[in-house]
Amino acid sequence: MLPLAFNLAGVEVLVIGAGAIGARKASQLIEAGARVTVISEDVLSPLPAGVVRLERRRYVRGDLRGFSLVVSATGDTAVNDVVVEEAREERLWLNVVDDPGRSSFYFMALHRQGDVTVAVSTAGAAPALAQELRTLVANALPDNLARVADSLRDERRRLHEDGMSTEGIDWRPRIRELLTAHDGGDV
């Protein structure tokens, strides 16, 4: 497994199933900027604002066409079998909820502060453990990470504007300085 951060802004994503887990996955994807379509016979949980299209029906072969990423949250093994087969044929990224062995990607437990994201994964083996570890890590992090990232972005931008490269710079002392800055002061 290689953790990657995908830019999902404007990416067409299909969520199959509208129970609690499907709604939660749809919400996470929308927060990441994806254009989410949901296909589900029944809507068992409120769907998040921002769902582009809701089709109240069963999934049928061919529904994956036009999507880049798919989440199957049906809890129905027979439906998942068809989704997995079609996703492989179409070479799509697929997450089968509660079936990591048939998934090509996993959702991670996330903690966000501005542009800083800390992600924890158990490769689908124990999502509750990933969530607990995420909470432990989040509680140990300083509260000013978003401001530190903003400051470093500005400093890098200024160096680039001056025609300089930022590749050879040891940023660690500056990062430590910014992290230890008082919350009330300027960063």
Counted by DSSP, the helix tally is 5
CATH homologous superfamily of the largest domain - what is it?
Answer: NAD(P)-binding Rossmann-like Domain
Strand coverage percent? 15-25%
Specify the biggest β-sheet: 5 strands, parallel
Stretches with pLDDT under 50, minimum 5 residues: none
Helix-strand pattern: EHEEEHEEEHHH
Strand order in the sheet with the most strands: 3-2-1-4-5
How many β-strand runs?
Answer: 7
Mean pLDDT across residues: 92
> CATH fold name of the largest domain, please?
Rossmann fold
Gyration radius, to the nearest Å? Answer: 20 Å
- Domain module count: 3
Mass-distribution shape: elongated
Helical content (DSSP H or I, runs of 4+): 25-40%
Q: Roughly how many Å apart are the termini?
A: 36 Å
Structural class: alpha/beta
The CATH C-level class name of the largest domain: Alpha Beta
Tell me which CATH architecture of the largest domain applies here: 3-Layer(aba) Sandwich
How would you sum up this structure, described in words?
This protein has helices spanning 20-31, 77-90, 127-140, 145-161, 172-179, and strands at residues 12-18, 35-43, 53-55, 69-72, 93-96, 109-113, 116-120. It is of the alpha/beta class and 187 residues long. The strands form 2 sheets. Strands 3-2-1-4-5 form a 5-stranded parallel β-sheet, with helices on both faces. A two-stranded antiparallel ribbon has the order 6-7. The protein starts with 11 loop residues before the first strand and ends in an 8-residue tail after the last helix. 22% of the residues are buried. The mean pLDDT is 92.
